[in-house]
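Q: I have 191 residues here and want to know how they pack in 3D. Can you give me a structure?
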Amino acid sequence: MTERGIELSLIIPTLNEEENIATLLPRIHQLMSGVSPQHEIIVVDGGSKDRTRDIARELGGRVLVQSEPGYGGALAEGFRAAWGRYILTMGADLAHDPDFGRRMWDARGEAQIIVASRYMDGGSMDAPWVRRVLSRVLNSVFGKGLSLPIKDLSVASVSMTLRPSEVYISIVPISTSLKRFSSSASVRDGG
């Protein structure tokens, strides 16, 4: 645990996500109270014109107004602000049931970076075929170009430690659905 007593920081980039944040944050608090009672939720907002920031604050999120451009900029700002020993990133679009966060938390001792992947045994992606093909092609190109052993570079869910030593990567399968919290979503341990 860190000097502030935070074990887990969850970073959620947002842009006009008031409805999703209103659903997501209570689910995360409920899940995390059983997983890591010492947690924080950091909402990095990219300029929402709706009530995303207000709702996030009302529901216990620490809200940062994004100053760096893009999704990567939002994550970088969240990483710098995080007080937790462990960090979990999550999309605000409700494409994944936040319960997968428990799997990632349980796997935290296996590696310093844990990536939720749709492209391994036990993972899946419920999306139109064009989006699935495009995702596979882009992930393959970027993975080879960056020489990374990760097949799913575009997934929003990554867990990592902040320990500055050699990094070991573990991949955990995840099912994604364009339906909100699909009951068919399943996450199983994987290598």
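Q: Anything worth noting?
A: The CA atoms of residues 84 and 168 lie 19 Å apart. The first helix runs from residue 18 to 35.
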